[in-house]
Write a structure and sequence with these properties.
Blueprint (H helix, E strand, L loop, with lengths): L6 H4 L4 H13 L11 E9 L5 E8 L13 E5 H6 L8 H11 L12 H6 L4 E5 L2 H7 L4 H9 L3 E4 L6 H13 L5 E4 L3 E6 L2 H21 L15 H19 L6 E5 L2 H7 L2 H7 L6 H7 L4 E2 L6 H22 L13 E4 L3 E6 L2 H24 L7 H8 L2 H8 L11 E4 L5 H12 L3 E6 L2 H15 L4 E5 L5 H15 L4 E4 L14 H29 L3 E6 L12 H21 L4 E8 L7 H14 L6 H8 L8 H12 L10 E4 L10
Parallel strand pairs: 5-6, 9-10, 12-13, 12-15, 13-14, 15-16, 16-17, 17-18
Antiparallel strand pairs: 1-2, 1-4, 2-3, 4-7, 6-7, 8-11, 10-11
Helix pairs in contact: 6-9, 6-15, 10-14, 10-21, 14-16, 18-19, 18-25, 20-21, 21-22
The structure holds zinc ion.
Zinc ion binds next to loops.
Length: 677
C-alpha cells in the first residue's frame, strides 16, 4: 500500500481540514474498510465561547463514511471530561453515550463514534482506526498474535477479542499505559489502531503496518491466484437456475419487507466458490464485527443442482437457525431482526446478496468480497478463525451498532418495488420512469432503441444517486427478447413487482386505404406486444407469489375512436380488453391490472412526430395547430403532459389503489365522448 500523504498540501490546512484530509485518504483505500467502518480523531486546543482555552477531541460521527466524509461529519468534545472517564471500571452503553453527548461542545454535531473513548484515552494527538483486510487476515488465525508480532514487530499492542464498548476502550488504554512507546494496537477479530504525535505520523503508521502485513501474506502465497478461476456453469444454465429459484427466494426473504437480490459472478468470486475449504471457513463467522451489520453472521451455501423446493427448505433452516441463535443469546425486550440471509453462496453460479435496493445488495457483495480476501489470507498463513456465536450476537444486536442503520432516510412510497417499463425512451415512458424512480422504485427501462434506453437509465441513476434503473433493448413482439430482458433484470434486482406496458406505434389511414401490413404491424405492437409482455410478467409474478400490478397505457381512442385511425384504435381496444381479462384471471393472486387512457400527449413523443402531418390533415387543420386543437377540445381546456400520465400510473402501482383492479382512468382533460360507460 502506497503512502499518498502530501505534506505540502496538508500543512496548509486547518486542524479540522487536516483531519478530514487524513480520514478521506484512509477511506480511499478500500482494503482498509468500507461504508462507514473505521474512525479517526485529532486533539487540539481551542477557545470556548467565553474565550477560555480548552482541549478538544474531534472524532468522526457514528455511521459517517471515511471515503466521503467532510467537516460536518466530525464531532467536537471536551477532552478533560472524557479523560476522567478512564478512571471508571465499567460503564453501560447507555451511560457512555449519554456522557459523550454531555461532553459535546456543539449541540448540532453528529452523534460521536461509539469508539470515541478509545480515541480520548490514548493521549497521542492523532488516532486512526480501520478494519484493514491484511491485518485481519493475520489476526483472525489461531496464532494471530504470533503472526502479527512477526509481520509488524514489537511496537503494536495485541488486544484479544472483546466486544466494542467501554470495556474495549479501557482494555486498550491499560495496554497503552503498560507500553507507552507503542505505535498502535491490533484488535483481534476486529481491526487496527495507530496513533502518533500528529496526523501524518499516525497515518503513516497505518499504511506501514498494512503494507508489512500485505508483504507477509504475499511471501506465503503458495499457488497462483487464479488456479480455480474457470469453474462456472454456462450462462444459459445459470439463468435457468436463477429463473427457477429467484421467485421462491425473493418471496421467502421478503416476509417482513421486500428485498432486492443481486448476482455477483466475477472470476474472483467464482474462484472462491470453487474451494470447499474456504466456503467452510466462511461459515465460522464474520471477519470483523463491522461487516456483520450488512452481511449478517453467516452466509447460506446452496448448490446449483438443488431443486427450488430444497432451496426454500434451506432458507427456512437458515431462518430457524437464526431464531435459535436469537433465543439463546437475546436479552429481555430485544426484538429479532430480519432472520433471512444477506449472502448466498452458490458454487459455479456466483454470490447472491440482498438489500433494500441493488445498491445496498452490491454493498453487501463488496463487503463480503473483502471478507473473502481475509479468509483466503488467513488460510494461507494458518487457518481462518472468527468470534464465537455469542460474541457475534453481542455485536449483531448491539443497539449502538444498529444506530448506524437508523441513520438511513425514511423510505419513499415505492421503495423496494421493482418494475418493467416498455417503450420507456419516449415522452410518456420517460416521464413514468422518472416519476417512479423519484418515488423510490427500481425500474428496467426497455425500448426498441437500445442506446436511448441505456442513456435514460444512466440519467435516472445519476438523479437517484443509486443503482435504480437498468436500460435494455426490447422488441415487445419477440418472445425470446422479452425473456432475456427478464433474465437480465433478475440478475440485478432479483424480482419483479409491476409492469407499465406502454410501447406503442401509430399509423394514419382510412380503412379503405389501409394496407394489410400496416394493420398487422399495429396489431403486433399495440395488441400482441402487450399480450407477450403481460404473459411473461404474470407467469413470473404468480411464481413469486407477492402479488403485483400491471398498468396498460391505452388511449382515449378505445372509448372514442377517431377517423383515419382504425389500425391504432382497434389494436388499442384489444389491449384494453386484454387488461380486463388479465384482471379477472389474476385477482386471486393479488395481481392488479388497470388501464390509463391518455389523450393528445405531445411532449417528447416520437409517436406524434411520426403522424403529426397526417393527423392534422384528418382534423383539417395545420400541423402546428395540433396541440391547440387537442387542448381546446377537452372540458378543462388543458394541455395533457407526460407527467400527468405518470401520476396516474404511480397511483395504480402504489398501495393507494390497493383495492382497485380492472379499472380505467382517463387523463385527457375531460372528453364527453370518451366518458367511460
Ligand atoms: Zn471498529
Amino acid at each position: 500500500m502506497r503512502n499518498r500523504w502530501d505534506d505540502r498540501y496538508a500543512r496548509r490546512l486547518s486542524p479540522l481540514e487536516a483531519l478530514v484530509y487524513r480520514s478521506r485518504l484512509l477511506g480511499a483505500e478500500p482494503t482498509l474498510g468500507l461504508f462507514g467502518g473505521g474512525n479517526t480523531s485529532s486533539k487540539w486546543e481551542a477557545r470556548d465561547v467565553l474565550g477560555q482555552p480548552q482541549s478538544l477531541l474531534w472524532v468522526k460521527g457514528s455511521g459517517a463514511d471515511l471515503r466521503t466524509c467532510d467537516a460536518r461529519h466530525f464531532a467536537p468534545l471536551q477532552l478533560q471530561g472524557l479523560r476522567r472517564l478512564s478512571q471508571r471500571r465499567s460503564m453501560s452503553d447507555d451511560e457512555m453515550m449519554a456522557l459523550l453527548e454531555r461532553c459535546l461542545t456543539d449541540l448540532k454535531a453528529p452523534r460521536p463514534s461509539v469508539e470515541t473513548l478509545l480515541h480520548a484515552f490514548i493521549p497521542e494527538q492523532a488516532v486512526d482506526h480501520t478494519h484493514a483486510d491484511a491485518i485481519l487476515a493475520l489476526a483472525n488465525t489461531p496464532q494471530g498474535q504470533r503472526w502479527i508480532r512477526q509481520a509488524l514487530g514489537p511496537d503494536l499492542l495485541w488486544i484479544p477479542y472483546i466486544q466494542p464498548g467501554f470495556a474495549l476502550c479501557r482494555r486498550v488504554f491499560e495496554a497503552y499505559q503498560r507500553h507507552p512507546g507503542a505505535h498502535g494496537a491490533v484488535l483481534q477479530h476486529h481491526g487496527l489502531m495507530t496513533w502518533g504525535a500528529d496526523g501524518r505520523t499516525s497515518f503513516a503508521r497505518t499504511i506501514a503496518c498494512v503494507s508489512r502485513a500485505e508483504r507477509f501474506l504475499t511471501a506465503r502465497r503458495t499457488s497462483p491466484r487464479n488456479r480455480h478461476a474457470s469453474a462456472a456453469i454456462p450462462v444459459a444454465a445459470r439463468r435457468r437456475t436463477l429463473r427457477a429459484w429467484l421467485p421462491a427466494i425473493r418471496r421467502t426473504i421478503s416476509a417482513q419487507r421486500k428485498m432486492h437480490v443481486t448476482l455477483t459472478a466475477t472470476p474472483d468470486i467464482l474462484a472462491f466458490l470453487s474451494q470447499p475449504r474456504l466456503i467452510a471457513a466462511s461459515r465460522r463467522g464474520p471477519a470483523t464485527p463491522d461487516h456483520m451489520l450488512r452481511t449478517k453472521r453467516l452466509p447460506l451455501t446452496l448448490s446449483a443442482a438443488q431443486s427450488t423446493g430444497s432451496v426454500i427448505r434451506a432458507l427456512q433452516r437458515y431462518t430457524q437457525s437464526h431464531a435459535r441463535y436469537f433465543e439463546a443469546y437475546h436479552a429481555p425486550g430485544q426484538q429479532m431482526l430480519d432472520p433471512s440471509p444477506r449472502v448466498m453462496l452458490v458454487p459455479q453460479v456466483g454470490m447472491l446478496t440482498t438489500g433494500k435496493d441493488a445498491t445496498e445488495a452490491q454493498m453487501v457483495a463488496e463487503i463480503f468480497r473483502h471478507a473473502i480476501a481475509i479468509m483466503q489470507g488467513a488460510a494461507r498463513i494458518e487457518a481462518y478463525t472468527s468470534i464465537s456465536a455469542r460474541a457475534a450476537f453481542g455485536v449483531e444486536y448491539w443497539p449502538l451498532e444498529l444506530y448506524k442503520l437508523s441513520l438511513a432516510p425514511p423510505e419513499a412510497e415505492l421503495a423496494r418495488e421493482i418494475g418493467l417499463i416498455t417503450g420507456a425512451a419516449g415522452g410518456i415512458g420517460r416521464a413514468i420512469a422518472q416519476h417512479l424512480v423519484d418515488h423510490g422504485a427500481s425500474v428496467v427501462v426497455a425500448d426498441l432503441r437500445a442506446r436511448d434506453a441505456r442513456q435514460l437509465a444512466e440519467a435516472l441513476n445519476r438523479r437517484a444517486g443509486r443503482l435504480r434503473a437498468l436500460g435494455v433493448a426490447m422488441d415487445v413482439t419477440r418472445e425470446r427478447g422479452i425473456e432475456q430482458v427478464l433474465d437480465q433484470a433478475l440478475e440485478i434486482f432479483g424480482g419483479l413487482d409491476f409492469v407499465v406496458s406502454n410501447a406503442g406505434i401509430a399509423d394514419v389511414a382510412s380503412i379503405d386505404r389501409l394496407p394489410l401490413k400496416t394493420w398487422e404491424r399495429s396489431l403486433a405492437v399495440n395488441a400482441t406486444g402487450h399480450f407477450l409482455v403481460a404473459r411473461a410478467a404474470v407467469r413470473f409474478l404468480r411464481a413469486q407469489g407477492l402479488g403485483g400490478a400491471l398498468v396498460f397505457i391505452a388511449s382515449k381512442n378505445v372509448l372514442a375512436p377517431g377517423r383515419d385511425f382504425g389500425a391504432y384504435s382497434a389494436a388499442k381496444a384489444a389491449e384494453a380488453q386484454l387488461a380486463r381479462v388479465l384482471a379477472i384471471e389474476n385477482g386471486e393472486a393479488n395481481i392488479r391490472v388497470n388501464v390509463v387512457h391518455p389523450d393528445g400527449v405531445f411532449d417528447g413523443s416520437g409517436l406524434w412526430e411520426a403522424i403529426r402531418a397526417e393527423r392534422a390533415k384528418s382534423h383539417r387543420i395545420a400541423p402546428r395547430a395540433l396541440e391547440e386543437h387537442y387542448r381546446k377540445r377537452n372540458l378543462l381546456q388543458a394541455r395533457v403532459l407526460p407527467e400527468d400520465v405518470a401520476e396516474a400510473v404511480s397511483f395504480f402501482i402504489s398501495k393507494r389503489s390497493a383495492k382497485t383492479t380492472g379499472c380505467l382512468l382517463t387523463v385527457d382533460g375531460g372528453l364527453r365522448e370518451a366518458f367511460p360507460r
